[in-house]
């Protein structure tokens, strides 16, 4: 299996706007996200935030958590489950890459699992997921 690291899949901002507006919407949606469709809508809101600010830690981790939830609780097929787990990993790798020490190590060829030693509590969600 070939794997392209998540941080290599970070896109340039595609929208202009206020990322905090999207994050505020996401926080409101969390309160009622009790169905697959509502969780997918929540993921979409976080992904819209990432179109404005692709390196926003809160949006990356939020997207990862709820992609993982879809994979674990709502995926109807193994393919859907796999797709959402892959998205979870990609967003987590992007969040880990925000740590400058980690980024320096992996950008210079160190394996992710070895570079994880420099991660801090800010990347704990990424490691967990």
Write the layout of secondary structure elements.
Blueprint: H1 19-30, H2 36-52, H3 57-74, H4 78-96, H5 100-107, H6 112-115, H7 124-128
Helix pairs in contact: 1-2, 2-3, 3-4
Structure, explained:
With 129 residues, this protein is mostly helical. The protein has one domain (10-128): Serine Threonine Protein Phosphatase 5, Tetratricopeptide repeat (Alpha Horseshoe), CATH 1.25.40. Helix content is 64%, strand content 0%. The protein contains 7 helices and no strands. It has helices at 19-30, 36-52, 57-74, 78-96, 100-107, 112-115, 124-128. α1 (19-30) runs antiparallel to α2 (36-52), α2 (36-52) packs antiparallel against α3 (57-74) and α3 (57-74) runs antiparallel to α4 (78-96). The protein is globular, with a radius of gyration of 15 Å. The protein starts with 18 loop residues before the first helix and ends with a helix.
